Structure formats: structure tokens, C-alpha cells
């Protein structure tokens, strides 16, 4: 067995050549205190992320009227919450494994099934999150470039349809990746998944760059609204923290957590989105509100408020383009 298998939280999923009992014994005997500390830090971050994304889901789902953009944000919060939950579960299992090593040998078959399911879901939630953030960025760009069409002719339930389609595509694609019959087809699908992730990332990047150029450097400069600022910061955070994990899980499709650093960055990426919403919604004339609920409402309701005050398409063009 390679030493790298026991120096981090990587859980290899190619069981044909790996004896799971030997893996558990070796992991327990070589695990270091540094790894335990690292796992504890990740566990704490996971709990914070679950609470933060849970609050966003609760607020958008039950305390605010949905707008085209908040539908994407709600689905994004669900994807982030689910991905963090998978991280949390695997970390809990890691600590149980370290604490009760020898007594868990008889549960090895259940452990392999658990690892397989968690790995599958991690890939689905990560790909869904990437697609939803891209869709949110592209629709923001379209709303500014084509304001009349967007207000008058955009399908009413487009956000929900796109979100559902992205969830379904992620599930189907990862299912093909996991249940392929040959090693060659698995490698091909892994390369396709990586290429698809890169395309979505580039599309997200260019739509935001084009939009901010249009808003701040065009003939009529406009101040971005809070929701746009929040989305822009989300995109920046994703490229800074989320890209390494997103790329590595498809480069190494047989591993859940390819690297400890990537795992930590991915956790931070998922956990920071609720913080971004609260900070953007709280900031007002260099002061911050104390209520999280008020901050979230200020961050999300700006667009919805503009739409509710609008009854004629032409009269709302200026409101939509001003974000």
C-alpha cells in the first residue's frame, strides 16, 4: 500500500486491488496528530457551513417571495449544504475509524458502500453547484444586455426549469461516470467531466467580467446593486477556493478527497457564501445591521422589489439595467 493512502483523508474507491481490512488497520496505525487536528478544524468549519447555508435555505424558502435570481441562490445553497453534509459525514466516520479501529473490521463491507455513496453524491453536488453559479452569472449578464426582452419575454419559470435541468444532468452524468463497465470508458467520461467543468468555469468568468465592464466602464456608468455584488464576490471566492477541488475530483475520479488542502478550500468556499450575503446586506454607509434576517432581506429583495413596482415593460427597463 502506498504511503499517501494513510497520510491524508483520501478514501480510495478502487476496491479490486485494495483489501479494506488492511486499509483500515494501516490507516489506524499510521494516522498522525496533525491529521486529527486538521480533521477537527474541518469538522468545525463543516458545522458552521451547515448552519449558515441552512439559514439561507430557511429564509429563501419560507420568508421571502421568490425572484428569478433567488431561485438559483436557493438551489445553490441546497447544493452547498448537501456537499458540506457529505464532508461532515465522512469526517465523522474518519474519527470513529480512528477511535474504534479494530472493533470496526467486521463492518468493512458497510464502510465500502458508505464511501461509494458519499463519493457519488459529492460529485453530483459539486457539479450542480458549479452549474448553478454559472447559470446565475449568465442570467445576470443577459438581464443587463437585453433588458427589454428580459422583462417582457423571459419565461416565467425559467430559473426553476434551468435549476432542475442542471440537477438532473449532474445526476445522470455522474451516474455514467460511476457505473461505467470498462476502465477506458471511465477515463473518457472523466475527461469529458473535466472539460465540461472548465467550460462552465470559463463561461462564468467571462459573463461576470463582461457585465462589470458594461456597468462600470460603459457610456452610462451604473452602480451595481447588492445582489450583483454578492454574486460577483461568490464567483471570486469560487475561483480562489473552489476550483482546485472541482478539478481534482474529476482528474482523480476514484477518490473522494484527493488532497487535504483541496478539501479545506472546498469547505471554505461552501461556507463563505452565507457570510457574503450577510455582509453585503448589512453594509450601509459603513455601518452594519445586527439582524441577520434584515441583512439577508436587503441582500436578496432589491430585485424582487423592483419587479413588484413595475407594471409596464418599457417603464421598468431602467430599473432592471440599474440592477
From TrEMBL:
The chain crosses the membrane at residues 35-60, 72-105, 117-138, 158-181, 193-216, 228-251, 263-280. Keywords: Cell membrane, G-protein coupled receptor, Membrane, Receptor, Transducer, Transmembrane, Transmembrane helix. Residues 52-277 form the G-protein coupled receptors family 1 profile domain. The keyword Thylakoid does not apply. It comes from the Eukaryota. It is a multi-pass membrane protein. GO terms for cellular component: plasma membrane. GO terms for molecular function: G protein-coupled receptor activity. It is found in: Cell membrane. Belongs to the G-protein coupled receptor 1 family. Mas subfamily. This is Mas-related G-protein coupled receptor member B1-like. The lineage of its organism: Eukaryota, Metazoa, Chordata, Craniata, Vertebrata.
Amino acid at each position: 500500500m502506498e504511503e499517501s493512502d494513510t497520510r491524508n483523508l483520501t478514501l480510495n474507491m478502487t476496491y479490486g486491488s485494495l483489501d479494506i481490512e488492511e486499509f483500515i488497520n494501516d490507516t489506524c496505525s499510521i494516522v498522525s496528530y496533525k491529521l486529527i487536528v486538521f480533521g477537527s478544524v474541518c469538522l468545525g468549519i463543516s458545522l458552521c457551513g451547515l448552519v449558515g447555508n441552512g439559514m439561507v435555505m430557511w429564509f429563501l424558502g419560507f420568508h421571502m417571495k421568490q425572484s428569478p435570481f433567488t431561485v438559483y441562490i436557493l438551489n445553490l445553497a441546497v447544493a452547498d449544504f448537501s456537499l458540506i453534509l457529505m464532508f461532515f459525514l465522512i469526517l465523522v466516520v474518519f474519527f470513529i475509524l480512528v477511535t474504534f479501529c479494530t472493533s470496526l473490521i467486521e463492518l468493512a463491507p458497510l464502510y465500502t458502500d458508505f464511501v461509494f455513496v458519499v463519493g457519488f453524491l459529492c460529485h453530483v453536488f459539486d457539479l450542480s453547484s458549479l452549474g448553478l453559479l454559472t447559470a446565475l452569472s449568465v442570467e445576470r449578464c443577459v438581464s443587463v444586455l437585453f433588458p427589454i426582452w428580459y422583462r417582457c419575454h423571459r419565461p416565467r419559470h425559467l430559473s426553476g426549469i434551468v435549476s432542475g435541468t442542471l440537477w438532473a444532468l449532474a445526476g445522470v452524468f455522474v451516474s455514467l461516470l460511476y457505473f461505467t463497465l470498462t476502465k477506458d470508458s471511465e477515463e473518457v467520461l472523466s475527461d469529458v467531466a473535466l472539460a465540461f467543468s472548465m467550460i462552465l468555469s470559463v463561461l462564468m468568468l467571462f459573463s461576470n467580467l463582461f457585465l462589470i465592464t458594461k456597468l462600470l466602464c460603459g457610456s452610462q456608468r451604473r452602480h451595481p446593486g447588492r445582489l450583483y455584488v454578492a454574486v460577483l464576490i461568490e464567483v471570486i471566492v469560487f475561483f480562489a477556493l473552489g476550483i482546485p477541488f472541482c478539478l481534482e475530483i474529476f482528474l482523480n475520479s476514484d477518490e473522494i478527497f484527493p488532497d487535504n488542502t483541496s478539501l479545506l478550500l472546498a469547505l471554505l468556499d461552501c461556507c463563505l457564501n452565507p457570510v457574503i450575503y450577510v455582509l453585503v446586506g448589512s453594509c450601509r454607509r459603513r455601518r452594519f445591521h445586527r439582524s441577520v434576517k434584515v441583512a439577508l432581506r436587503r441582500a436578496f429583495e432589491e430585485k424582487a422589489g423592483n419587479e413588484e413596482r413595475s407594471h409596464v415593460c418599457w417603464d421598468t427597463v431602467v430599473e432592471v439595467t440599474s440592477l
